[in-house]
Design brief:
The chain has 5 helices and 5 strands, in the order βαβαβαβαβα. The protein has about 120 residues and is α/β, with parallel strands linked by helices. The protein is globular, with a radius of gyration of 13 Å.
């Protein structure tokens, strides 16, 4: 059974390129263009194995999204990766405190993306 990955990014280009990489690698993809849409899908019980979210989005940001998702019992232990242009240590620490499992800096290569996913989906 293939793993399902939930992608959240306000950039349609990023959503498309990442989902292409992941689909080619054999993953099923669920997408949302913003954190609010993603949260609604989580609240309605979407079945996914991993969340990959952008940090900076209009409205609710990625860290707020993670905090909300972590409150839902079904997703307490689901791996969550940040995919962002931010590389500051403070943001990284904040993301980790919110419940992020890992961090990828954009633009991430297909190879680094897939390697990181393999690590967290063991």
């Amino acid at each position: 059974m293939s793993k399902r990955i939930f992608l959240v990014d306000d950039s349609a280009t990023i959503l498309l390129s990442i989902s292409n990489i992941l689909t080619k690698a054999g993953f099923e993809i669920e997408k949302a263009a913003n954190a609010e849409e993603a949260l609604r899908k989580f609240q309605s019980g979407v079945k996914v194995d991993l969340l990959i979210t952008d940090l900076n989005m209009p409205g609710m940001n990625g860290i707020e999204l993670i905090k909300e998702v972590r409150k839902l019992p079904n997703y307490r232990f689901m791996p969550i990766l940040f995919l962002t242009t931010e590389s500051q240590q403070t943001k990284r620490a904040e993301a980790k405190a919110a419940g992020a499992s890992g961090w990828l800096v954009k633009p991430a290569t297909a190879e680094s993306l897939l390697n990181t996913i393999k690590l967290v989906l063991r």
